[in-house]
Design a protein that fits this description.
With 249 residues, this protein is an all-alpha fold. The protein is built from 11 helices and 2 strands. It has helices at 2-7, 10-40, 45-49, 53-58, 63-84, 86-95, 100-127, 131-162, 168-183, 186-199, 221-245, and strands at residues 205-206, 218-219. A two-stranded antiparallel ribbon has the order 1-2. The N and C termini lie far apart (67 Å).
Length: 249
């Protein structure tokens, strides 16, 4: 170990760079999952608790402006945290284990994740009467999604062990569904995208499949991840605006 550092072994330095980069990105993803909902879970519900929501509705401030204002302040704070970690990621870049493509993709995924988790907390806050309720719902939805993912992964592994598909089309459909499911998980999406970029030198497409034996091109997991969560974010923002504009009963 000491000799590899002293001799400046390029492969060893690249390994250290990849470990540093992967660790920083995964820790940031975990951090965003904890901090994001906490920043916005009380954005609207706290106004109801203080009985000031009606004053906001009576003002010239529209529901859209209120939602984007609350969301923007939280997202900017998380973006500050993301970009302050770039110098640490740049250390891995200079060691030679990480390229600009990996830096750009990881930053994009982190930004999308930050916006999504902030929107998630705001979504539950838009119709909750108490901040505690919105906070519990936000973290419960994250936990439940991971539990469902693990259960589905278990059934897929059991089903694939029998390797019985009625047709090639059914096998392709199952492979695509599993690939999409893996791509919606931030940790798996980041890890698999990194593996594809290293092994296949491809940033956008891959022929690797999670199940079955057929090979056909599929988009890299980071593409599915970004598109899926941006669509989900826009949907939750629209619903949040609806609940903010709707009079409380």
């Amino acid at each position: 170990f000491d000799g590899s550092i002293a001799n400046g072994d390029p492969s060893f330095l690249q390994t250290i760079g990849k470990v540093i980069f992967s660790t920083v990105v995964l820790l940031e993803l975990l951090m965003l999952g904890f901090i994001g909902p906490a920043l916005t879970a009380g954005a609207i519900s706290s106004e109801r608790e203080r009985k000031t929501i009606d004053l906001l509705r009576a003002s010239l401030l529209s529901g859209r402006a209120l939602v984007f204002g609350k969301l923007g302040s939280a997202v900017i704070f998380l973006l500050l945290l993301i970009f302050t970690a770039i110098p640490v990621q740049s250390l891995a870049f200079f060691l030679g284990g990480v390229g600009m493509a990996e830096m750009a993709v990881s930053t994009l995924m982190l930004v999308v994740t930050a916006i999504f988790f902030c929107t998630l907390g705001l979504f539950f806050s838009s119709f909750s009467s108490r901040t505690l309720i919105a906070t519990v719902l936000s973290y419960s939805s994250i936990l439940i999604s991971f539990i469902i993912f693990i259960i589905f992964l278990f059934f897929i592994s059991v089903f694939d062990s029998y390797n019985t598909y009625p047709s090639t089309m059914a096998e392709n459909m199952a492979s695509t569904a599993v690939w999409f499911l893996f791509s919606t998980n931030p940790f798996f999406a980041a890890t698999i995208s990194e593996v594809i970029l290293i092994d296949e030198q491809s940033l956008f497409l891959t022929t690797s499949n999670m199940i079955g034996s057929t090979t056909f091109p599929l988009p890299s997991p980071w593409i599915i991840y970004v598109v899926f969560y941006m669509i989900l974010t826009l949907l939750m923002i629209s619903i949040s605006i609806f609940f903010v504009n709707r009079p409380d009963r």
